[in-house]
Structure formats: C-alpha cells, structure tokens
Amino acid sequence: MEFQYENSYEIKDKITASSIAILPVGAVEAHGPHLPLGTDNLLAERVATSVAEQVEAFVLPTLPYGQVWSLRNFPGSINVSNESLISIVVDIGESLYRQGFRTFVMVNGHLGNQPALKNAARVLFTSCPDMKVFYFFYPGMKQAAKEVRETDSAHATYFHACEIETSYMLYLAPEYVDMEKAIKDIPHIPEDADVTPTPWEAFTKSAVLGDATLATKEKGKYIIDIAIRNIVDMLRNNGQK
Amino acid sequence: MEFQYENSYEIKDKITASSIAILPVGAVEAHGPHLPLGTDNLLAERVATSVAEQVEAFVLPTLPYGQVWSLRNFPGSINVSNESLISIVVDIGESLYRQGFRTFVMVNGHLGNQPALKNAARVLFTSCPDMKVFYFFYPGMKQAAKEVRETDSAHATYFHACEIETSYMLYLAPEYVDMEKAIKDIPHIPEDADVTPTPWEAFTKSAVLGDATLATKEKGKYIIDIAIRNIVDMLRNNGQK
Amino acid sequence: MEFQYENSYEIKDKITASSIAILPVGAVEAHGPHLPLGTDNLLAERVATSVAEQVEAFVLPTLPYGQVWSLRNFPGSINVSNESLISIVVDIGESLYRQGFRTFVMVNGHLGNQPALKNAARVLFTSCPDMKVFYFFYPGMKQAAKEVRETDSAHATYFHACEIETSYMLYLAPEYVDMEKAIKDIPHIPEDADVTPTPWEAFTKSAVLGDATLATKEKGKYIIDIAIRNIVDMLRNNGQK
Amino acid sequence: MEFQYENSYEIKDKITASSIAILPVGAVEAHGPHLPLGTDNLLAERVATSVAEQVEAFVLPTLPYGQVWSLRNFPGSINVSNESLISIVVDIGESLYRQGFRTFVMVNGHLGNQPALKNAARVLFTSCPDMKVFYFFYPGMKQAAKEVRETDSAHATYFHACEIETSYMLYLAPEYVDMEKAIKDIPHIPEDADVTPTPWEAFTKSAVLGDATLATKEKGKYIIDIAIRNIVDMLRNNGQK
Amino acid sequence: MEFQYENSYEIKDKITASSIAILPVGAVEAHGPHLPLGTDNLLAERVATSVAEQVEAFVLPTLPYGQVWSLRNFPGSINVSNESLISIVVDIGESLYRQGFRTFVMVNGHLGNQPALKNAARVLFTSCPDMKVFYFFYPGMKQAAKEVRETDSAHATYFHACEIETSYMLYLAPEYVDMEKAIKDIPHIPEDADVTPTPWEAFTKSAVLGDATLATKEKGKYIIDIAIRNIVDMLRNNGQK
Amino acid sequence: MEFQYENSYEIKDKITASSIAILPVGAVEAHGPHLPLGTDNLLAERVATSVAEQVEAFVLPTLPYGQVWSLRNFPGSINVSNESLISIVVDIGESLYRQGFRTFVMVNGHLGNQPALKNAARVLFTSCPDMKVFYFFYPGMKQAAKEVRETDSAHATYFHACEIETSYMLYLAPEYVDMEKAIKDIPHIPEDADVTPTPWEAFTKSAVLGDATLATKEKGKYIIDIAIRNIVDMLRNNGQK
C-alpha cells in the first residue's frame, strides 16, 4: 500500500496502533558505468514494497537523498549532511507518531546513511516513547553474501556497484542495469581508510568495488530474500514484545 | 531526462554550465476525499517533467516531504519543519553546484513550502555565487485561475483540493482522482487567518477549500499550460541575462 | 500606554489575561532621498500607538532591526537574518506569556519581516498554547491603495518609498519627510524577481518603486485608517472567539 | 546624529572608515516603584547621545531588549536569551561593516547584557577583521560611585534601582523618576549568589538593591560624566593605534 | 611526552609539521562489578602513551566523557551527546592545526564514540585541509580477539567488561581490576538490537557481556600489542604518503 | 573519592540526594616559561580533591579543555568555544541529575571559563529543577591576594602565571614549577582591554602578568586555603537552605 495514494478520509481508519509505516531511504550516488545514480533508491523502494506486502504496511514516498560523503566528488553524486538527514527523518517520525503509527521502519539502501538514521531513531526513542523505530540495511546480508560471492570482498563492510550490489539490482530492478558496461575493478583500499577520512577517489576511479561482471540475478535473490525475511521476522516478533 | 537513471560515467559530460537541474518539491498532505495525500508530489513531478522536456533539463528525484503546518493535524499529513526543508535543499543545491550545474530550479507543488524554498535560495545565492536558483509555484496561475473558475475563491492566495487543484490533477494525473467522491465545501475562512496562526481544522473538516465537483481537465490544462510556459520562458530568458 | 514607562509595582495589576501587548517591528533600510532610513520604525510605532489607544493595549519598545535582504547593499541598510529575528521575537513572546499576557500583537512596518514573524508566531502557538499571536502588516491596504493611487503599482505586493509609503509618512510622520527631494522612479522589475533571489540593485538605483511626488497626506490617511480599523476590529473580535 | 533619520542618498558620503556607529543596548526590566521598566534603555540612549556629540558618531536605534535572567520573574521584565542577543548584535555589526563602518560601539545600560555583547564582539573580531568593536558599561563607574555613595554597596558588582542608578536617572532622565515612591531596601544577598544561579526573588521583593532615597542628580552627574569621558577618551585614542 | 606538562616557551620549537598530537578519548560508564567506571579512560590513556613513545608524539589530556547512550541508565554512567562530542573535538583539532600540528590522532577507548569522532574528523578534513586526522579504536582487535577468546562473543561488534575488555585492563591497568568480583554473565542480546534503539537494560543487569572470569593479562597483551602495532604502523606509513 | 575508580555495583548506594559531584574544569594554555600548559587543570584538580575530602564528595574526571580565546595564539594553547563548553557541561550535569545527584559543583581553574559555566548552570537550573549547581573560581581570592601580594596587580581581575598563580602552583603542584625560569614581566595592559576584544599578544610576549619570581608556597597557601574554606562553607550551608 503506497501511503501517498491513499486519501485523507480513508487513511484515518487504516492507521492503527498495529499498523506499520515504512520509509525507503536511498541516495543519488555514482555507481559505476552499469548502474544508475539512483541505485540505492530503487533497491530501498523495492525491498520496502516486498516487506510491506508481507506485513501489511504502508510504504511512504522514498527519501531519495542521502549522506554520500565518500563519493561526493564523483560525477552525479548529491550529498546531504548527517544533520539534514537526521532533522528531516525526525520530523517525519514525529508526524507519523501523531498520526497514530506505533511502528516506524526505515528501509535503507545506502550504508552511509546508517549513522544518521540510528541517531534519528534515538531521538525518536525519547520524543515518541511508545513508537518502535527500525533502521534496516539488508540484515543478514554479510553472511549470505559470503556464501554466494565468487570474489573476495574488497572491504570488510563496504560493497558498492560490485558483484553483490549489481546482483541486487539484477534481482530487484534489472531494467536499470546495463551488464554490457559492467566492469571488474578491484581496488586496493588503504588499510587506514576506516580510521581517517578517505574520499574514494583516493583508491578508485570507477566507484566499482569488485567484479560486477560476476553479478547474477540468483545471487541477488539469495541475499535479498534473506534480508527481507529477516526484516519481516523482526517486525512480526516486535508485536509480541 | 531523469537524473537518477543516468550513470556516473556519462553524466559528467552531460552536465555543463548551461544545463539545468530541476527538483520537484511536494508534500504528503490531506487533500479531501477525492485526491490522494501525494497530490502535490504528483503535480510537482509532472510539471517538472514537462518543463524539462522543453528546456532539456534533468529532473531530480522528488523531495516528497513538505511543510504542512496548517494541515498537520489532518489524517495522513506528514509535516517537516522549515528548518529541515531549508537544510536539505541547501545541501542539494550546493552539491549540484559542485557537480557543475549553474541553474537549479525548484518546481514546487505546495504553497507552504515557498518561504523555506525562498530562504534556501537566498542561502545558495551567497554560497554558490554564480548559480541561478529558482523556486517556482505555478507562476501566473492567479490570473489564469480567475479566468476559468466558476466559483469565487475561498481565500486570496490559498487553493486546495478545490475546483482549481482538482482540475490540475485531472489534467496531469487523472488516474489518481476519484471525481465520484469530489465534494463542494466552501469554508468560511476567518478574516484573521492570515495574521494569526490558524490550523485549518478551525474552519474546515474536509480540507477542501471550494467546489471540487466543478473541476475539469480543461480548466487544469488552461492554467497549468500557462504556468509551464511562464517557467520555460523565465528559464530561457535567464540565459540571456 | 508605553510599557517601558510603567513601573514594576503597578504593572502587575495592569497586566491581565485580557490585556494586549503590542510590539512595533520595523527596520533600518534605504527609502530613497526623501524618506529616512527608519521609515518602517516610525510607521510601525505610530500605527501601534493608534491601535493601542483604541483597544487599551500596551505598546512595547520598537524592535527597530529587520530582515532587509533585498536592499541590504543600499547605503544605510542594516540587515538581520530571519533566524535572529525569529529567535528574539520568540523570547519576547514567551516572556510576555509568563508575565500574564494572552494577546501578543506584532505591528510590522516592513514587508520583509513577515515570514520571520509568521514563523515566530507558529513557534509561540505551540509554546504558549493559550496566547493569541498576531502579525499585522497594514491589513486591507492592498485594496485601499488601489482605490487612491494615481500610478500603477510597480509590483504586485511590493510598495516602497513610493506614492503609497510616502503618503503613509505624510500622514503619520510628516516631520521626517522632505517632499522637495521626492522623485518619480518607476523601475522595470524583472518578471522573475519573485522566483529567484533578486537584490534590488538589479533594477533600481533609488530604491523608490514609483512616483513619490504624488504622495499626499490624504491618501495616507485613507489607507492607514482602514488598516488600523481592520487591526482594531480583529483584536476586538478576538475576545469573542 | 540619529542614524535612522538620515536618508540613503546622503548617508553614503557620511559613512567613512573613520566614522563611528553607536548602538545603545538596554532592557525592559523591573526597577522598583520609582523607576520605569525601560530605565536601562533611557540611560543607554542618553549616554550614547552624549558620546556621539563629542566624537561625531551616529547613534543607531536602541536595541531595547536584554538578558534579564535574574529578574525575569519580576512584574514587567522581558527576557531574551544570550543566544538571541548575540545573534542579532552580530548581524547588526556585520551590516555596519559592509556599510563601511570600522568602529562599532555598543553603549550598554544593563549589566546582564555584558557577557553576550562581549561574545558578539569576539565573533565580529573574526568576521570583520579590521573593525574595532567596543562594549561599554559605564567604564570607571565603580571607583567613581565609591566616591559619592553614602551607603555601602549591597554587592560587589551589582547596582540596581538604588542610590547609584537612581542618581543616573535623575541626571539623564529625571522626567521618568518619581522620587516620592523611592524606597530604601537593602537586601541581604546570599554569599553564594555569585557562584550558583540565583533569581533575585530569592533575596528581594522590590528589586531595589539599596537606598534609592539618597539619589541625587549631582551624584549621577559625577559618575556619568566620568563614564562618558572614559568612553570618549578610549574612542579618541583608538584612532591613534 | 605529556603535552600539558610542557611549557609555552619550549613547546613552540617542539611542534613541527611532522609532530603528532594524540588525544585519548574515553568515557565514564558502568563496567560491571570488577572494573571501574573510568575503564575506557584508563585504556585509552595507556594505549596512547604506548603509541606516543614509539612515534615520539605528544599525548594530550584525556577527554574523559563519551557518548554512552546504551548504558546511560546504569549506575555511574555519564552520557554526553554526539553533538557535544563532535563540537569539542572539532575545536581541539582546529586549535592543534593552528598550533602547527599536521597529524591529529584520536585514540578512542569506547566504541560508542566512534560515530562522533568520525564525524568530527570529516569536519576537520574540510576546515584543516592538510592535517591528517585519525580515530582509532583498537585496530585489528576483532581478528586478534577471535584467536584468544575461550567463549563465544555475545555480539558481532560489542565487547564490554567481558573476557576481552577485562584482559585489556589486566594488561594495561591491573591495579584497577578486582578479579574476585569478576562474573560470567552471557546475555541473550535480541536480534533487533542493531536495528532499533535498545538500551542495554533490556538484556543485561550487570553490563558484563561475557565471562570476565576468563580474562588474563596474556590475552590482553596479545590483542593490545597488535592494536598498538597497527596504530604505529599506520602513523609511520602516513609520513610516506 | 575519585568517581571514575568506583564501580557500577557499589556506586548506586553511594549516590544519594545529599551527595556531591565535583567537576574540575581547567584548560591547556600558555603559562610562561616556568609553569606548564596544564596549570589550570592541576590547580582545579587539587582544589577539588581538597574540597571533596572535607565534604565527602565525588571528584569527577577533569574536563581539561577550556575557553582560552585571549591566549589562543600563544604556543601550546588549545581553545574550545563557549558553545562547546556549555554543551558538554550541560550534558554532564543532566547525567549526574539522572544518576541521583542533587549538588553539582564545578571547581574551575581558568577565569575564561566562568561565563560558559555560569551559562551552563542556568540551563541546568531549568532542566534539573531541584539540583543545586555551583561554578567556583577561587572565591574570596581577590581580597586574600591583595593581602599577600608584593607587587601591584597588572589588571583588576586577571592574574596569570604571576606572583599569585605561581604561588598557587608552589602550594598545590610544586613538582611542575621551575622557579629558575620564573620571570618578572609586568605588562602595560591597554585601558580598553576590558571593552574591546584584545588578544593578549597585543600587550605581552611572555603571558606572564606580573612578577613570578616573588611567588612563594606561603602566599599560595594563604589564598588557596581561604578559597577552599569558602567553597566548603558554601557547600555546607547549602544543606540548610
């Protein structure tokens, strides 16, 4: 159910304390030659939609701008600050709370947003005391990706426009993938990239962190289905606490 | 051209000092029984798309949350503060500037956003000195609406879910309008509503400010085409200044 | 009654829930060769005084600095930001509320202050729930001015140092007007001045938007008396809501 | 020279790098039964005017609201925060700098404003590097007051509505003093009032910190003339550094 | 070299572009019955001292307050916000930059500080363009801990007052450890603790996340020595980039 | 009792409404050739420890960074803004309040911190209504110093690295004083240094404001013992109010 296509007269009864509002959060960011700038928006939206169907939730309009500090100097990237992101997400959350929602779920498609979304969730923890707030970023994907990937990961937590993320797109939004342009570009990420500010132009020209040519719809389906199942399970368990 | 479906490799050459980035800005807000909550998003997007075709601009992903203070207590409304809106729009504008854009156009579908967008534009005027920033809200519509409307306007500047806005939707997004539910509800707006904070529940239950049953696609086309032409003209003239 | 000439011992009994505090808000801003920089302060003060006499209100000391972004580069203009203005007005309003006032009226003499005053009023709407806050800028003047003006208006909402505002001064503060220096200077305001940041030096050297030589005390009296009557009526009606 | 009565055409030439802008800063605050709420505004204005005459400076409109935390619960007091005060003073100072002033003088009539004015001056020290900013509060008054006072001071740095401040008013603004209502009320100020937040209602009902009945115009003249001379001397010396 | 025991006359020559300033950052936080509240301060200080000896750096006074949101309701915890932490660290970094340092190293002893320190480092990346800023939290410890631990970790990234952290203390600050009070308390951390705000009182009473009785100095030495070596290596490599 | 060496299990019972938390606040700042940069930290800590022993209070870890605007350009100084200082002190105070403390004492060793600490105390006055907050800076020292000093003070309120402060160090932290390097350097402080921002490099190269060679442990003991006694007395009296 897309929230913005509902009308004001009918929405009132549909929003109950047990109903769930899902906000897809993405970004506009360089994703190499074969994936679109809006990759994270597309992924977040489609994961959100799939979750919503299973738990009867409302999907809110996607918040399509994220914190892309690391790639902000790459062509096409649009960066918003942590402060802006926290501020607008808190406003949205507080509005949902006043509208009667007691479960607010952020389905995030961009790793760089996680600290801001976590911070916003903590603000809402205090201002909306009986609303449960989630900030999901492909829960369980780390283990699942390890099982299907054919190349080593370039970094412990980053994946970007690579075998993995391209597989997500082949599963969820294949119409926006151009596999003919997919490349293999395994960067050497400096060991201090996790402990000092390191714009990615320091180690990659393509913004592809791996071998995108190995991406398949099946790999994407394997990981994404696990992530979606994890989200759905956590939302269902939430009702019983 | 939808910006987010471009890729990072090709976008670099496409962005030139003469190219234009258009940001549709809308809102999620009560619009009576016959129009969806996302009416302002739909309108902003489609006006933006039409403008973009005529001036060869990029359309950015819609910023779908706006300042809806007046209707924030109506079912389905999601309100964000002026501060949040200004902050994220300034971030987006500054990113576009660094990406090489020298014309940033906000096509706004929600009147309540105008003060924040104007404020953001002024911030950008200083921080991005040679970028021209526009914040359009149906330029010329006031006169054009006067020419086609069959009922008096309930307020000097507000129009909402009424003969006028419903006509816009019948022209631009008819698939989201349910004319069978359209109502006539002409409120008596207190004369001090412009000079003291007045949530709209003080004078309307429906959030419809007029007679929506009189809406027609033709009226919408008449006004919207004028607004679009005005936008296009101003953007074209901009090049010659 | 000028609030600041009262003393602390007697003011306590004089402030009751039915009493009204009026804050004149003006600006220091270029007003052409014939009007002083403090024109908006003088007008706001004198309108406030007249209103106060009719509704038995207290007039607070004038807040004499306003947001004059558009004319900030003209000789003599002193600009304060929206943020500063909102912040100090909210402080003043909250103090008045704690002092026992339940009606706080801003009589504003400078159009550029309206967005900030409206924003402040909304903040106070939440923090001082049973205090009514008004932000008046010559209510009803648009229609009244149309009736008396001999030249067309240079802009739909601006009037500045022109036939109209000079007439206000001739009525309310003639000792500060030098009609021998009054000029006629009808600028061509670019059509996009309302939709893109446009410092006024782009279209005028004088800061006079019209024909000041046509100003008369009678025109001023006609419009100002209507505005004052409208303010008084709204304040009186307020008691009955 | 009152700045706000100048006009934009002539002010340009009058503002030179050697000219001085003086901002009187006061407060609206309880001052006992015999002095008006606006005592600090009156004093600041008149000291400023006297200084301006001697150094050929412009006097700006008074900023009539100050930080009166200690007396904020007394009838008639209007309190603004340090943050608001700093913000608006910085805006004013930066505007004066852009207008060409290189000396910005705050003549402050309210002790509680000093920390905010000092803070603002330091901000301007960085943002307006070659503008000299002063924040005067009766320089030299401590010693001078000691020489003329007939009663001991109730506190090392406070004086308020007492023998001293009432004398200032008898000298500078006698028309606002009602000596028939003047009282003697020497409070016992707790020794920890300087080291823990202590609203004045903890130790005084009158807000008079001493024996106002001993005030004379002569005492006021003695101290104020010294303060003014000190200000004038420092401004004159400034030119030679 | 402890920075604060240097004097102003000699420090000038000692600070060169190649010299390094190390800021230990810790927290005051519940650490079970056997470890002190200041555990993270002690660890950060002693790791910093060890690093400093190897790279000839200055150790600054410890910033002893951290973001302990998760444990803020436990006895003895003192929590500061991300905003406060970012603000003071940025101030410190900018001062060091003006003093001539070009390498600023945060040695952090508390996981909860990492997002704020990373954020501060990014601010400094822009404001101090040629200063390298590091934010270390036991680099390499994850793998090293896996090699020595006898019990499974209770959580993928948390370790707290457990076999691991107690071992650190036995190695670096044994005089503050009371092993007689050490307990085993392996909590069941809910699977959604990483995706929704979860104060730790939801799953532990002791704040011990494991079996502290298994801690040994040797385990601590093994991991800490690796972490220190990693820090030293990265600082040394930094010189060659 | 050093708070950070307590453990979470035992601290709960030790914190009662009558117990006191003392926060030493210092600075890292140039103190001439004979005193260390951390002089204010050492003094604050040791005064705090002495007070704590007499009133059975907890001493918190020292906040070792202060607002040193005036000396920020001297070698070794590290400056933090008023805003940062206020923010972190308020956080600490609010945490202490939630932990059960009802008396929060700041023992400050650096004059430049007083405005920020006072401001923070006022914020806490509102947010923690029944917690008493003190901000001490050597209470009574002015009179006591006058009695023992052999040279005139260079300034009415400043003392720095001079006969007085060096005496404090000889009494409280003699191991950090190098009297062989002590100098006499009595600056001429411009008379306007109190009324316009004046970095100390304008009048001193050494940062020593007097004759440090005259410092003795006895002078230090005389003044410090008075200051400590005053603090202790005020804390004891506090219980009876």
UniProtKB/TrEMBL annotation, chains A, B, C, D, E, F:
The entry's keywords: Hydrolase, Metal-binding, Zinc
Highest taxon listed in the record's lineage: Bacteria
Known cofactor(s): Zn(2+)
Pfam families referenced in this protein's UniProt entry, alphabetically: Creatininase
Assigned protein family: Belongs to the creatininase superfamily.
Record's protein name: Creatininase family protein
Signal sequence coordinates: none
